[in-house]
Design goal:
Elements: E1 13-17, E2 22-28, E3 33-35, E4 42-45, H1 47-52, E5 58-60, E6 74-76, H2 83-105, E7 123-127, E8 138-140, E9 143-147, H3 153-162, H4 170-187, H5 192-200, H6 207-217, H7 236-259, H8 286-306, H9 319-338, H10 343-346
Parallel strand pairs: 6-7, 7-9
Antiparallel strand pairs: 1-2, 2-3, 3-4, 4-5, 8-9
Length: 351
């Protein structure tokens, strides 16, 4: 779904159809690319597929845009005269499409920025650092900047160890930084802000000073009782972003498990059990979703340990963190229910 452009069974071109959130095979005709799904609809590949083979999302044949709704969100890419940069860019776009897919499932797919002052639109910048111009991954005013070197596994792993992190992935960067964007869209200047402050803390405290204090002194010893990570302790904005990222980790992974029909039967009285009664996205029974997440991560970590690997999910969810996840789910439930009635939610496009 995120990188395949050729079916290895039939050798036909495949692509992702954002409108139906599904993959399809295509046959190239004089009129366009015919979807072989019975719809007889015509499409064309994104320009970034035709020129660089770094995208597999399709566009309606009569759509005036040269780029798919994913690539429209990327405003700056690395210098493609450097061959390594094409590889970095391709990996960044794959991770971005995986992130965007779950925003589709949650009805919060972002729209592109229309101007520098448009904080409710979103833009991605993938920059290669130099000695004179270092690049910090981060978010500001609807612009998510990623250091393109993060697409290099060795660089990313070395950074993970240096920073004392137990988890660092390209996809994780997209999910974390998007948390800052969605705070501005979904929480700031809304009725949710008061409850946010009760749960996460007052975001009006000095951000720069809070980060300086964190890097000088680290997290408090009992941080696991209230936070998902040490970095989450630095400031309420970072607590939200870290928790938001983990919510997306959870929902996306469970959504995959749901669609491949995964279940787990408990073998002893207190053993974990994985069962679905509905899709995890927009789940009415969020407590079942949390129970399923415990079962799935328990199984994933146990399997990894049996292979001599690190835990796939090296985190502990305290009761306080669970309440933060419940808050995020509640916000998104309201977004889905009232999107058409609220002008702010209408700013989020349906891809």
């Amino acid at each position: 779904m995120y990188s395949n452009s050729l079916c290895i069974s039939c050798n036909k071109v495949v692509g992702y159809l954002p409108t139906s959130q599904d993959m399809a095979t295509f046959e190239q005709t004089e009129q366009g690319w015919l979807a072989l799904d019975g719809s007889e609809k015509l499409y064309r590949p994104c320009a970034n597929y035709q020129e660089y083979h770094v995208c597999n999302w399709m566009i309606d044949a009569d759509d005036p845009s040269a780029y798919c709704c994913s690539c429209q969100l990327t405003s700056v890419i690395p210098n493609l005269h450097e061959e390594k940069n094409i590889e970095y860019w391709a990996k960044l776009e794959i991770a971005k499409r995986r992130f965007l897919y779950i925003t589709q499932r949650l009805d919060i797919f972002p729209r592109p920025k229309t101007s520098p002052d448009d904080a409710l639109g979103l833009s991605f910048q993938f920059l290669v650092p130099t000695e004179d111009h270092p690049v910090m991954t981060g978010h500001a005013n609807g612009v998510i900047t990623l250091n393109a070197f993060e697409a290099d596994h060795l660089y990313r792993e070395q950074t993970r160890i240096t920073m004392g992190e137990n988890y660092r992935t390209l996809l994780g960067h997209f999910r974390h930084e998007s948390g800052h964007y969605y705070f501005d869209v979904l929480i700031a200047d809304t009725p949710w802000l008061a409850e946010f402050r009760q749960i996460f803390g007052d975001e009006r405290q000095d951000y720069s000073q809070a980060l300086q204090n964190y890097y000088e002194h680290g997290a408090q010893k009992d941080w696991q009782e209230r936070f998902i990570s040490t970095y989450a302790t630095s400031h309420p904005w970072e607590d939200w972003a870290e928790t938001w990222a983990h919510y997306l980790h959870m929902i996306s992974t469970l959504d995959t498990a749901y669609h491949i029909g995964m279940t787990v039967e408990k073998r002893h009285k207190n053993g974990p059990e994985l069962r679905f009664t509905e899709s995890p996205t927009h789940a009415q029974d969020f407590e079942l979703t949390l129970n399923n997440w415990f079962a799935l991560t328990y199984g994933l970590n146990s399997l990894n340990q049996s292979m001599g690997l690190e835990d796939a999910y090296p985190f502990v969810l305290s009761s306080t963190v669970l309440d933060k996840l419940r808050f995020i789910h509640k916000v998104l439930q309201q977004v889905s229910a009232h999107k058409r009635e609220d002008e702010r939610f209408n700013l989020l496009q349906r891809c």
